Amino acid sequence: MKNLKFSSEDKEKIKIAVKKAESATSGEIAVAMIGQSYDYAVYELIFAHIVGFIYLMTIMFFVGPLEQILQQISWSYSINHLLAFYGFSTFLIITIFYLLANIKFIDRLIIPARVKRKKVQERATRYFMESGVYNTRDRTGILIFVSLLERRVEILADTGINALIEQKTWDSILNNIINGIKTGNYKESLLAAIKDCGDLLALHFPIKPDDTNELGDDIVILEK
């Protein structure tokens, strides 16, 4: 997933695919991608504190050996040295594991699946509204939203088209994209999904004589 990148050529292919998919329909297709849908800092901090607590509880069983080591390296040992060691080392462990928690692989492991699902849905819905996909003339906009960190894809369709399509059809398109991502064929699977969405739109909303392109055809790479 960390190598999920789009070159200028890839972006142009997606743009062409969207244009082609929309050429036979009055509907609109939007494609967006984001690195992660939420910063998850609170979960990373909780994880680091849990590790720090476990570390502190573990070293509590080694008071004797630790005191001996501190006595050997300090000419004027006191209990304050031991307390300082406990405090500083625990703080260091928390800091290290907080930084480690920002590694994508670890992030995916520590963040609950339900949280990732909810945050991606929220971010996709927000973009659905911000980009105007919800506000096309016939309410036939479709958004394909890919969130990389969470390895999730959301397909949001406006009421005009969504009311005519069974959920299993959307699920099939979505799962094809996810499978493409997992196998490294994410570009091809995304192009196929655009075509499938175009076919659905063309079936129910064929192009009109006065049709206009209401949304941009480029894939949008979101920063946050």
Explain what you see.
The chain has 224 residues and is of the alpha/beta class. The protein has two domains: 141 residues, Diaminopimelate Epimerase, Chain A, domain 1 (Roll), CATH 3.10.310.50; 69 residues. The protein contains nine helices and four strands. A four-stranded mixed beta sheet has the order 3-2-1-4, sandwiched between helices. It is rod-shaped, with a radius of gyration of 25 Å. It starts with 7 loop residues before the first helix and ends with a strand. The model has no long low-confidence stretch (mean pLDDT 91).
Topology:
Blueprint: H1 8-22, E1 28-34, H2 41-59, H3 63-73, H4 79-100, H5 104-110, H6 113-130, E2 141-147, E3 152-157, H7 159-162, H8 167-183, H9 186-204, E4 220-222
Parallel strand pairs: 1-2, 1-4
Antiparallel strand pairs: 2-3
Question: Which descriptors apply to this entry?
Answer:
rod-shaped, 59% helix, Diaminopimelate Epimerase, Chain A, domain 1, 4 strands, 224 residues, 2 domains, 4-stranded mixed sheet, alpha/beta
Helix content: 55-70%
Would you tell me the overall average pLDDT? 91
The third-level CATH topology of the largest domain is Diaminopimelate Epimerase, Chain A, domain 1
Structural class: alpha/beta
Q: Beta-strand percentage? A: 5-15%
**Per CATH, which architecture of the largest domain?**
Roll
- The shape is rod-shaped
How many runs of DSSP E, i.e. beta strands? 4
CATH class of the largest domain equals Alpha Beta
Overall tally of structural domains: 2
Q: Number of DSSP helices? A: 9
- N-to-C series of helices and strands: HEHHHHHEEHHHE
Distance between the termini: 18 Å
Main β-sheet description: 4 strands, mixed
**Spatial extent as radius of gyration:** 25 Å
Strand order of the largest sheet: 3-2-1-4
- Uncertain ranges: none
